[in-house]
C-alpha cells in the first residue's frame, strides 16, 4: 500500500503536469517570432507551427522509455535468485485463453503501434491548429467530445453495446460542447469589439470576425477527436491480443510518431505556399531564434512525459475513477489559470453559458462511466438470469481475476483504451442488472 503522502503527490503531479500541457502550448502560440519591433501589433508574426508542436509532443512520449530503461538496467545489475515456479504459475495448456492473453508484443508486431501513432499524429496536429483560434479553456472543454466518437466507433468496430443512459450521456456531452463553443465565440467577439472601437483611426485589416475564428477552431478540435477515437479503438484491438507495458507502448508510439513527422517533412515543405503551418524550415528558424519558444517546447515535452507517468501511477495505486476525476479538475484549473493570466475574460451573462456547458460535459462524461447516480427510467431493465451451469461460478471467477490482472498489467484507464463505461452497468434498485457483452 502506498503511503498517505504518496497518493496526494501523484494526484497533484497529474493535475499540475496535465494542466501545464495545454497552458504552455497556448503560451507558445502567443509568442512573437518575427517583426516584434514593429510598433503596429498587426504586423507581428506569432508562432504558428502545429507540426513542430506535434513533434515535441512525440518527443515527450519517447521520454517514457527512460524509466523502462532504468528498470531494465537495474534488473541486469541485481543478482537474480533461483526460484521454483508455484503451481499457479505453471504454463497453461496450449490454446487456452490465458496463454493467448499473455502473448507479448515484440519483434515485427511492435510496428502495429505505428497505426495508433499515425492517428495520434493527425489528431494532435488538428488540435494544435484549433488551439491557435480558440481560448485554451474552450480547447480543453471541446476535447470532452471524445467520449461521443469513442462510443460510436466502438459500437461499429468493437461490437459494443451501449445502454439507453449511455446514449443520453453522449447527447448531453455534445450539447455541452456545443454550448461551450458558442459561448466562447461570443465572449471572444465581445472582448475584441471594445478594443477595436478604441482605435478609430486603425485601417481595416479584413480579418475574419473573432466569432468565426473560434468556431473554425472548435471544428478543427472536434474533427481531431475522430482520429483520437480511432487511435483508442485500434489500441484496444492491439491490447486485447498482445501484452505490453503501458510506458513501453507510449514510448513506441512517440518514436513512430516522431519518425513519421521527420519522414514527412520534405513533402510538407513543398506545400509551404499553401499555409504557414507547412513552412517547417521557417518554423525551425523561429524556434531556435526565440528562446521563449524553444524552452517552452522543452517544458511541454517534459510535462507530457511526466503526465503519462503520473496518470498511470494514479490508476495503478489508486483507481481509474480518481484519474477520471483528476482529469476533469484539469479542465477547470486551466480555465481558472487562464482567467488569472488575463488570457480570457468573464463577460456576464455569456460566461454563465460557458459554465453551464462545462457542467453538461462533466455530467455527461460521469454518467457515461457510471460515476453518478442516474434517473431510474434510464437504468437498464433487470432480466431474470438462467440458473448457472455446473462450474460456471469458477469460470466467472477466473474471468474476473484475469480482468483484474490485465488492468494491473496495463495500468491504463479503460476510457483511454476505448472501453470506459461500456461494461459498467449500474445496478437497478432492488435487483441485479444484466452484464453486457
From TrEMBL:
<dbReference type="Pfam" id="PF08449">
    <property type="entry name" value="UAA"/>
</dbReference>
<feature type="transmembrane region" description="Helical">
    <location>
        <begin position="111"/>
        <end position="132"/>
    </location>
</feature>
<keyword id="KW-0762">Sugar transport</keyword>
<feature type="transmembrane region" description="Helical">
    <location>
        <begin position="332"/>
        <end position="350"/>
    </location>
</feature>
<dbReference type="InterPro" id="IPR037185">
    <property type="entry name" value="EmrE-like"/>
</dbReference>
<dbReference type="InterPro" id="IPR013657">
    <property type="entry name" value="SCL35B1-4/HUT1"/>
</dbReference>
<feature type="transmembrane region" description="Helical">
    <location>
        <begin position="55"/>
        <end position="73"/>
    </location>
</feature>
<feature type="transmembrane region" description="Helical">
    <location>
        <begin position="164"/>
        <end position="184"/>
    </location>
</feature>
<keyword id="KW-0812">Transmembrane</keyword>
<protein>
    <recommendedName>
        <fullName>Integral membrane protein</fullName>
    </recommendedName>
</protein>
<feature type="region of interest" description="Disordered">
    <location>
        <begin position="418"/>
        <end position="437"/>
    </location>
</feature>
<dbReference type="InterPro" id="IPR012404">
    <property type="entry name" value="UCP036436"/>
</dbReference>
<feature type="transmembrane region" description="Helical">
    <location>
        <begin position="138"/>
        <end position="157"/>
    </location>
</feature>
<keyword id="KW-0472">Membrane</keyword>
<keyword id="KW-1133">Transmembrane helix</keyword>
<keyword id="KW-0813">Transport</keyword>
<feature type="transmembrane region" description="Helical">
    <location>
        <begin position="255"/>
        <end position="273"/>
    </location>
</feature>
<dbReference type="GO" id="GO:0016020">
    <property type="term" value="C:membrane"/>
</dbReference>
<feature type="transmembrane region" description="Helical">
    <location>
        <begin position="214"/>
        <end position="234"/>
    </location>
</feature>
<dbReference type="GO" id="GO:0055085">
    <property type="term" value="P:transmembrane transport"/>
</dbReference>
<feature type="transmembrane region" description="Helical">
    <location>
        <begin position="293"/>
        <end position="312"/>
    </location>
</feature>
Amino acid at each position: 500500500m502506498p503511503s498517505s503522502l504518496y497518493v496526494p503527490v501523484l494526484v497533484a503531479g497529474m493535475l499540475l503536469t496535465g494542466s501545464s500541457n495545454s497552458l504552455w502550448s497556448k503560451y507558445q502560440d502567443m509568442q512573437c517570432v518575427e517583426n516584434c519591433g514593429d510598433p503596429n501589433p498587426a504586423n507581428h508574426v506569432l508562432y504558428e507551427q502545429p507540426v513542430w508542436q506535434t513533434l515535441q509532443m512525440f518527443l515527450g512520449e519517447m521520454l517514457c522509455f527512460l524509466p523502462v530503461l532504468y528498470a531494465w538496467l537495474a534488473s541486469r545489475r541485481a543478482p537474480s535468485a533461483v526460484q521454483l515456479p508455484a503451481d499457479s504459475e505453471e504454463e497453461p495448456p496450449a490454446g487456452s485463453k490465458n496463454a493467448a492473453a499473455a502473448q507479448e508484443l515484440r519483434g515485427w508486431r511492435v510496428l502495429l503501434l505505428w497505426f495508433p501513432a499515425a492517428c495520434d499524429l493527425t489528431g494532435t496536429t488538428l488540435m494544435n491548429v484549433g488551439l491557435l483560434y480558440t481560448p485554451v479553456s474552450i480547447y480543453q472543454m471541446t476535447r470532452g467530445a471524445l467520449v461521443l466518437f469513442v462510443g460510436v466507433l466502438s459500437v461499429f468496430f468493437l461490437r459494443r453495446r451501449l445502454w439507453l443512459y449511455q446514449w443520453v450521456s453522449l447527447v448531453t456531452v455534445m450539447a455541452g460542447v456545443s454550448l461551450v463553443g458558442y459561448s466562447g465565440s461570443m465572449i471572444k467577439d465581445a472582448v475584441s469589439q471594445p478594443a477595436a472601437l478604441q482605435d478609430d483611426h486603425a485601417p481595416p485589416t479584413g480579418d475574419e470576425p473573432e466569432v468565426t475564428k473560434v468556431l473554425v477552431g472548435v471544428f478543427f478540435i472536434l474533427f481531431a477527436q475522430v482520429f483520437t477515437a480511432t487511435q483508442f479503438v485500434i489500441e484496444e484491438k492491439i491490447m486485447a491480443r498482445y501484452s505490453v507495458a503501458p510506458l513501453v507502448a507510449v514510448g513506441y508510439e512517440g518514436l513512430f510518431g516522431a519518425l513519421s513527422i521527420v519522414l514527412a517533412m520534405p513533402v510538407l515543405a513543398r506545400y509551404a505556399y499553401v499555409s504557414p503551418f507547412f513552412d517547417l524550415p521557417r518554423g525551425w528558424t523561429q524556434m531556435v531564434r526565440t528562446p521563449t519558444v524553444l524552452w517552452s517546447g522543452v517544458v511541454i515535452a517534459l510535462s507530457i512525459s511526466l503526465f503519462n507517468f503520473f496518470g498511470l501511477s494514479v490508476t495503478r495505486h489508486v483507481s481509474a475513477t480518481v484519474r477520471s476525476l483528476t482529469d476533469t479538475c484539469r479542465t477547470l484549473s486551466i480555465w481558472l489559470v487562464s482567467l488569472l493570466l488575463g488570457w480570457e475574460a468573464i463577460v456576464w451573462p455569456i460566461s454563465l453559458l460557458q459554465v453551464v456547458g462545462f457542467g453538461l460535459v462533466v455530467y455527461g462524461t460521469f454518467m457515461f462511466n457510471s460515476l453518478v447516480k442516474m434517473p431510474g427510467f434510464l437504468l437498464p431493465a433487470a432480466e431474470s438470469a438462467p440458473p448457472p451451469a455446473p462450474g460456471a461460478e469458477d469460470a466467472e471467477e477466473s474471468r474476473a481475476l484475469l480482468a483484474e490482472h490485465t488492468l494491473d498489467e496495463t495500468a491504463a484507464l479503460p476510457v483511454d483504451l476505448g472501453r470506459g463505461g461500456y461494461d459498467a452497468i449500474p445496478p437497478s434498485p432492488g435487483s441485479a442488472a444484466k452484464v453486457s457483452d
